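User: Can you recover a sequence for this backbone? Please restate the input before giving your answer.

Assistant: Of course. Working from this structure:
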């Protein structure tokens, strides 16, 4: 079982499921991206994607149809070299990230490493793959109590060479003004109720 991990910088990373994302979360399903489109250097739904193999930019991660539909992947999806690093750079700080994944090897696992606005690592979580239902994979989701702007995703695939990724969920940190207005609304409502009760009494 995965447990929260406290990173050196003080961030606590907690594994979450797809159901734990709010209704306001953004979902990228890659359905509007052309098949065979190279992922590296591509901006999709305000997220800048990068892909490297052995530290060098690589075109071996594209929008494809493999492995087909699983419990967490639907066509279309990203498919690529499992030795690579898939990076996602967000335009605003976020608190939650998740994705469906699959691989062609068993056992397999996927790792999410998060970075803050200063490019400091906040730590990482490892997600072990399960049969899902015809390929090893699953859903990898993480909540960080420290905002992050970049995530690097990697895989370890035993007896295989490929990964697939789809259905990227993420949640933006609310603006301070939005939070302030929400708090003021709650306080104002409470005061109104109290005043109404005072008049009744």
């Amino acid at each position: 079982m995965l447990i929260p991990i406290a990173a050196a910088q003080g961030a606590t990373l907690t594994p979450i499921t797809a159901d734990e994302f709010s209704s306001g979360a953004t979902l990228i399903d890659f359905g509007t991206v052309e098949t065979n489109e190279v992922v590296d250097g591509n901006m999709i739904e305000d997220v800048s994607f990068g892909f490297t193999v052995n530290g060098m930019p690589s075109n071996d991660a594209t929008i494809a149809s493999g492995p087909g539909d699983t419990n967490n992947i639907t066509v279309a999806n990203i498919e690529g070299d499992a030795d690579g690093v898939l990076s996602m750079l967000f335009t605003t700080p976020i608190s939650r990230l998740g994705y469906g994944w699959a691989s062609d090897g068993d056992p397999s696992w996927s790792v999410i490493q998060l970075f803050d606005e200063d490019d400091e690592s906040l730590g990482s979580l490892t997600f072990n793959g399960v049969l899902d239902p015809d390929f090893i994979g699953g859903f990898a989701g993480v909540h960080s109590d420290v905002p992050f702007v970049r995530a690097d995703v990697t895989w370890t695939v035993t007896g295989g060479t490929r990964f697939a990724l789809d259905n990227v969920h993420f949640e933006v940190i609310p603006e301070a003004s939005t939070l302030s207005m929400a708090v003021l609304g709650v306080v104002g409502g409470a005061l109104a109720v109290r005043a109404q009760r005072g008049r009744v009494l």
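That completes the design. The chain has one domain: 5-173.
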